[in-house]
Amino acid sequence: MTTTAPAPVPMPWRLARVEDGWLETRTARTVVLDVPGWPGHDAGQHVDLRLTAADGYTATRTYSVASAPEAGRLVLTVQLVGGGEVSPWVVEEARAGDELEVRGPIGGWFRWSAEMLQPVLLVSGGSGIVPLMAMLRERSRTGTTTPFHLVHSARTPDHVFYTNELHALAVSSPGLRVDRLYTRGGLPDDARTPGRLRPEDLPAVDAFDAPPLVYCCGPSGFVETATRILLDKGHDSGAVRTERFGPSS
């Protein structure tokens, strides 16, 4: 006699309502969503977001969650994509009270929780900082002092998401280091000249008391470059967790 495994139950779509929103940069916006029945998530996970037009047409895109785990509530930060179907609505049109649908949480590998005691190296390019911000916020929420080092690359200081919060966390959180580097134009007193990610921008494995978990997120080219540098600097490939997006993500 043979038995078959039950078919997986599809994730339900949940109604979400916009509670609040604000610009992070001129082309990126954070929205706070009230999601009744949302079970919570792990820092680093993502969700599907679906919009439905009056004529029934739907558009779905995937976005990382920016908030620390919390039941019934999600925070997303969305970068405007030219010609997109979802990001222009989120960045330019969404207002408090507007409704949409979300499905998730999604993702089993690119996750962090306070029970993971290894040091952590976070490497992000552009909007790739979003899931890493969820990890930083969860670290702060739980009060852990696990060593964290964030290396974030952006075009200019005006392109950095969460800039004030990152500064506050770096000042107030023991064991947290935040490095920002710029590819197009930096600040007048920057010692580093603007440019793409370089080997000297990322710490070697022996810069930590124990081999760290590494989370790297950003455009595909950035992630490929960062991963190559990390492996050259002694980080184990099994400890480097990556998430990447292309031009239409």
Automatic annotation (TrEMBL):
Annotated ranges, domain FAD-binding FR-type: 8-112
Protein name: Ferredoxin reductase
Lineage summary: Bacteria, Bacillati, Actinomycetota, Actinomycetes, Micrococcales
Signal peptide annotation: none
Co-factor requirement: FAD
Gene3D superfamilies: Nucleotide-binding domain of ferredoxin-NADP reductase (FNR) module, Translation factors
InterPro entries linked: Cbr1-like_FAD-bd_dom, FAD-bd_FR_type, Flavoprot_Pyr_Nucl_cyt_Rdtase, FNR_nucleotide-bd, MRET, OxRdtase_FAD/NAD-bd, Riboflavin_synthase-like_b-brl
Source organism: Phycicoccus sonneratiae
Pfam family, one: NAD_binding_1
